[in-house]
Amino acid sequence: MKNQVLDIEAKYEQDFRRTVLIVDDEPVNLRLMGNILGDEYDLFYAESGEEALDIIHKEKDFLSLVLLDLHLKGMDGYEVLKSLQSDDSLRAIPVIVLTSDKEAEVKSLELGAVDFLSKPFDKTQVIKARIRRSIELAIDRNIISLTGTDSLTGLLTKQFLFQYAGEYDKFHPDNGVDAIVVNFSKFHLLNELYGRSYGDKVLCAIAEGVRAVARKHGGVASRVDADIFYMYIEHQEDYETLVKEIKIPLESVMKPGDIRLKVGIYQDIFHTASLYQRFDRALEACNLHSKSLQSESYIVYDNAMHEQEIYVARLLEDIDSAIKQGQFSLVFQPKYDITGKGAKLCSAEVLVRWRHPKYGNVRPDFFIPLFEENGLIKELDRFVWTEAAKAIRRWKDMYGMTIPVSVNVSRVDIFDPDLTCFLKKILSDNGLTAENMHLEITETAYTDNTSQFFNIARELRNEGFKLEMDDFGKGYSSLNMLTSLPIDALKLDMAFIKDIAEDNKEMKMVEFIISIGQFLNVPVIAEGVETKEQYLLLKKAGCNLIQGYYFSKPLTESEFGALIEKEEAEK
Ligand code: C2E
Ligand code: MG
Ligand code: MG
Hints:
Elements: E1 19-23, H1 27-37, E2 42-46, H2 49-59, E3 63-69, H3 77-85, E4 95-99, H4 102-110, E5 115-118, H5 124-146, H6 158-171, E6 177-184, H7 187-194, H8 196-216, E7 220-225, E8 228-234, H9 239-247, E9 261-268, H10 275-291, E10 299-300, H11 303-315, H12 319-324, E11 328-337, E12 344-356, E13 360-362, H13 364-374, H14 377-399, E14 405-409, H15 419-429, E15 437-442, H16 443-448, H17 450-462, E16 467-472, H18 479-482, E17 489-492, H19 494-498, H20 505-520, E18 524-527, H21 532-541, E19 545-547, H22 557-570
Parallel strand pairs: 1-2, 1-3, 3-4, 4-5, 9-10, 12-14, 14-15, 15-16, 16-17, 17-18, 18-19
Antiparallel strand pairs: 6-8, 6-9, 7-8, 11-12, 11-19, 12-13
Helix pairs in contact: 2-3, 7-8, 8-9, 14-15, 14-22
Bound molecules: ligand C2E and magnesium ion (2 copies).
């Protein structure tokens, strides 16, 4: 087998058969040309201009050249040339005219023909050489028009990569290929911490790595965005080594432990996906790195991911009607004040539940992030807040007491200019005030976009809303920043509680966080408390509020009502 390298030079190698269309109204000429070219090219024949155009339209992606007789019955060769020139998708196909008329040569060159062959025909070798040369020149021209390079890394552009990959697929339909996406995790931090020129150095090192590996495996590499690189190479088996090789140049600009490369791979052995799909899927696999806890050096897109992709698309198909059909419901998880004797019911957190008619219960920690990515969360959250306000009202009417309910406010909601107005309206519609509804905002919303966030947080607090920082400890609040953050409570991330035991490291951490709350003069809420031991340890450490299965699972509105009633009766 010939070495089928996806390299610029491969275009000139005779490692695949190109296709040529011969147009002549004399069957004998067709046969003659066919005999000359048949051993080197796949051939189409046309006896009229109309038939020629028909074939060209159908086979344009596969045609390398057209040999065109000028004197045809009906539509003549000039008209065929004009027609090709006026169509962007056909103009790049080189045409050699066949004629015995010297005058006609000039005219046809003016109309876009690349060369001519005089009748009666030259020697076979000459014909073959001119045809080969015309095809090569046309390929060069197409490539040159696309060969933009990235000024920082010198890598080829994405447009070139796609063009090249398309060509490769066309001519090597039986070769398996890999689309690979390489990304440096949290690259912006390098720029922020060490300056842009260091960031550039890192990008150049990644470029060097992907270029070398792409070359080695007969492929091309390109930088498509700041820190995102694409590679298109022959299908590989050993990705461990491939990733190691990509990293080699990086090792001379940073410590190996600091190299946070994410690599996503889509293998297309049988060319079943389009080029765009392949890279989208490789990118999806690449993005899974941040979601998965293990630090694999690469992730290969697999069938399960494909099914997941389809599942997600179906889930998100029609949220409007899902809300209208009542697929979403609310549950309330009690929070207990443990600062006094025993534990006293003091508030609740509302959590949304989704019962999908086809897929059954869908987990919030699965669909909430999806809704956030797709901008659907705003609608869902507004539904949840509105229903929560109505529930608070109903409990007040039934039991004569208002229990403040915390609602989750997604980081996406924060940028809704109408947020404060909307919250005020649903409260006033139900005769409630801002004290009755606390807002849980995840810590990462605080740290992602500080200045804009601060303004909104201040506005909300001025209106009397209490802000609880959810999942505290998961984000990266600096201690310095914490002192100036607009917060009214810290909600410890569940992960901190999980393994606490008397005097262990985890417990020390929790004690430290509680002392931060005390320093800031805000209560600390522990969620995900599942055992008595955890509860007692937290109480001893000075934690203020507790939420978790140990006290109660999330409850329906009526179950929670019954709890309020019981609490009232015990007073
Ligand atoms: P979160 O706000 O941190 O909510 C606490 C999660 O912990 C809830 O999961 C709750 O059911 C669970 N949980 C409570 N007690 C325990 C326990 O003792 N052990 C364990 N292992 N888990 C406990 P859920 O309901 O699955 O919600 C997951 C996340 O989804 C929430 O985390 C929140 O970020 C988001 N979410 C839920 N409802 C909404 C909503 O209406 N809007 C928005 N934007 N996000 C929501
Ligand atoms: Mg929450
Ligand atoms: Mg939480």
